[in-house]
Backbone:
């Protein structure tokens, strides 16, 4: 069995950058449980040896199986010490096998294609829903921005995607990165998720949602009707999107979940297009 730690401070996550035989990738810090150890004892030892950090106030948040080995992941909410590489990792350092502890912005780290294992990354993306209020998430920005795009086929069916890390369907889009506009995020996410390059986007609405200790801004754009060639070339990354489909709005609302804010936003889009006037929403309702 292996254990790994999920450590966040001020909106950044601590990962181990590996360079092995010329290949660069990231992993979560941790290691194997030794004979006579509990998983918790192994976690404390591994983080101390590897990173010179003393951890406390942690809890197991999920387990996965990686290449036939059971792995337990712990959400670490308090730690102390000066970060520095140590233990077997430091001893093994050579030109072909290198280790570098690094703090990365949480939202960007979650989108890394070379962060492994992918099953653990998918579970980390679920944590804000499973654990919405622990100290771990107080470091995240209080106002977050995301954007999405509506695209249709000739039958006026909406393009939906099924994120691999969510239990419901959605539309192409995602979190707006630093120094990126909502429109730029929409075109980037659409290319990454479904391999569609959009040159012209029409702004439909912005939606503000207030939650306990959290605020979100969501920008919705209209990408128009896709050509048969664009639909033919749709390609998804299985690590991000498990499948896609076209659906009538009524079906789309059910697949997304009628209680979701996104469904409330989508229900307003016909009115927006008819009036040819962008709309401002709060918690899914027109203001």
Residues:
């Amino acid at each position: 069995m292996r254990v790994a730690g999920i450590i966040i401070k001020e909106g950044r996550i601590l990962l181990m950058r590996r360079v092995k035989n010329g290949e660069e990738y990231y992993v979560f810090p941790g290691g194997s449980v030794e004979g006579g150890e509990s998983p918790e004892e192994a976690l404390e030892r591994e983080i101390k040896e590897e990173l010179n950090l003393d951890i406390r106030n942690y809890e197991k948040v999920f387990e996965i199986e990686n290449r036939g080995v059971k792995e337990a992941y712990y959400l670490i909410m308090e730690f102390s010490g000066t970060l520095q590489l140590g233990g077997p990792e430091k001893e093994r350092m050579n030109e072909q096998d290198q280790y570098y502890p690094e703090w990365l912005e949480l939202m960007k780290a979650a989108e890394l294609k070379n962060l492994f294992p992918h099953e653990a990354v998918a579970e980390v993306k679920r944590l804000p829903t499973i654990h919405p209020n622990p100290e771990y998430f107080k470091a995240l920005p209080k106002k977050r921005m995301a954007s999405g795009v509506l695209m249709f086929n000739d039958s006026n069916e909406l393009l939906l995607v099924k994120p691999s890390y969510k239990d419901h369907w959605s539309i192409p889009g995602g979190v707006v990165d630093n120094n990126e506009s909502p429109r730029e995020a929409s075109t980037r996410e659409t290319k990454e998720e479904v391999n569609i390059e959009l040159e012209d986007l029409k702004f439909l609405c912005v939606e503000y949602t207030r939650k306990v200790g959290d605020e979100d801004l969501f920008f919705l754009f209209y990408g128009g009707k896709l050509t048969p060639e664009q639909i033919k070339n749709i390609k998804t990354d299985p690590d991000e999107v498990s499948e896609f489909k076209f659906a009538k709005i009524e079906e789309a609302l059910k697949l997304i979940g009628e209680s979701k804010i996104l469904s409330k936003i989508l229900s307003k889009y016909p009115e927006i297009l008819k009036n040819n006037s962008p709309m401002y929403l709060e918690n899914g309702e027109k203001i």
